[in-house]
Write a structure and sequence with these properties.
The protein contains seven helices and five strands, in the order βααβααβααβαβ. With about 140 residues, it is of the alpha/beta class. A five-stranded parallel beta sheet has the order 3-2-1-4-5. It has a single domain, classed as 5'-nuclease (Rossmann fold, 3-Layer(aba) Sandwich), CATH 3.40.50. α7 links the parallel β4 and β5. The termini are close together. The longest helix is centred in the middle third of the chain and has 13 residues.
Length: about 140
């Protein structure tokens, strides 16, 4: 990321890291998230993923999930993006090969339709050339 503002769509794990474990983020990503010129967004499908992790006991939050979502979005100054019918359709029109995870497909479809940059550590997304990405570990 250069000096130009970048609109970041946080992958689910990046959203969780930014709120719960910022040390997992690389220095450039931490700086980008602190820079108010870089708009940030989280797709609603990420809430579904976080809810599943909490339900399964794979993620322990100190506050109730609904409070966590509201607080983390506010703290990050991130917009919440809905999963629209257009995004759902685009998720399965992505140029192949792309992996099968339905949440990742929706996040990437959202980014493509809204011209956003996906902040992720997912190598499958980072190596896929059909969406703008930034490695959250850097």
């Amino acid at each position: 990321m250069g000096n130009e503002p970048v609109t970041l769509l946080l992958d689910t794990h990046v959203w969780v890291w930014a709120s719960e474990e910022p040390s997992q983020l690389g220095p450039k990503m931490r700086k980008a998230l602190l820079d108010a010129r870089n708009p940030r967004a989280v797709c609603a499908v990420s809430t579904l993923e976080v809810a599943r992790l909490v339900w399964a006991g794979d993620l322990i939050l100190q506050i109730q999930l609904d409070e966590w979502v509201e607080k983390s979005l506010a703290d990050l100054r991130a917009d919440s993006l809905p999963v629209t019918h257009e995004i759902a359709i685009e998720a399965y029109r992505l140029p192949e090969p792309f992996h099968r995870d339905p949440a990742d497909r929706q996040i990437v479809a959202c980014a493509r339709l809204r011209q956003l940059t996906v902040a992720t550590a997912d190598e499958r997304i980072l190596n896929w050339k059909h969406v703008a990405t930034v490695d959250a570990r850097k």
